[in-house]
Amino acid sequence: MATDGVQVLEAEAGAAGPGCEAGAAGPGCEAGAAGLGCGEPGAGREAKAPSEAVSAEDSGLDHKCLFCKIGNEKEAVELLHLDDQFACFKDVRPGAPHHYLVVPRNHIGNCKTLKKEHVSTVEKMVEVGKSVLQQKGFSDLADVRLGFHWPPFCSMAHLHLHVLAPASRMGFLSRMVYKSNSYWFITVDQLIERLKSLPGDSKS
């Protein structure tokens, strides 16, 4: 593991807690999926500040968003899954032997912007992630880490599910970056529970 990744992680821990998935900070810089820096397309550019994140209500495509481009085949990235709603591809800096990202093809903001009606979206993302794992020959779904980085510890304003397996083989740094139900990483189960507690219609 690169020492600069460890140093960045330690710096984050001292300031606001460990685990920003992004930057050059070791495993989990999913924005590197196309060999680019985190945040906006183009190496070295900074991620959007939380105040600039696009909310969950904003639909359609953000033509400046890397994940919108990847999900709609505008970037030279191998897609492991593609349907009308979601795309899945490898994280270029994997935190486990299997590390995939599931993203909605339309632009949806980070997990903090979601509402009760997005429960089904999250559940479908989980189904896609598990399906890709099985296609890749991994069947022990009890040994999988599924979750999202919680702002401000997320590099991309586009909703993306981390699918890591086997969780039991994650290294020390990865276990920190993707620590279950920490204040920087929320598991799927915890997020769904949170969304269901919000006011709104969960049937859409």
UniProtKB/TrEMBL annotation:
Gene3D superfamilies associated with the record: HIT-like
Record-annotated active site: H160 (tele-amp-histidine intermediate)
InterPro entries: Histidine_triad_HIT, HIT-like, HIT-like_sf
Record domain HIT: where: 66-175
Keyword Ion transport set for record: no
Origin superkingdom: Eukaryota
Catalysed reaction equations from the record: adenosine 5'-phosphoramidate + H2O = NH4(+) + AMP
Entries under Pfam families matching the protein: DcpS_C
Gene Ontology MF, one: nucleotide binding
Motif residue range(s): Histidine triad motif: 158-162
The entry's keywords: Hydrolase, Nucleotide-binding
Keyword set includes Hydrolase: yes
Family: Belongs to the HINT family.
Protein name per the record: Adenosine 5'-monophosphoramidase HINT3
Origin species: Callorhinchus milii (Ghost shark)
Taxonomy of the source species: Eukaryota, Metazoa, Chordata, Craniata, Vertebrata
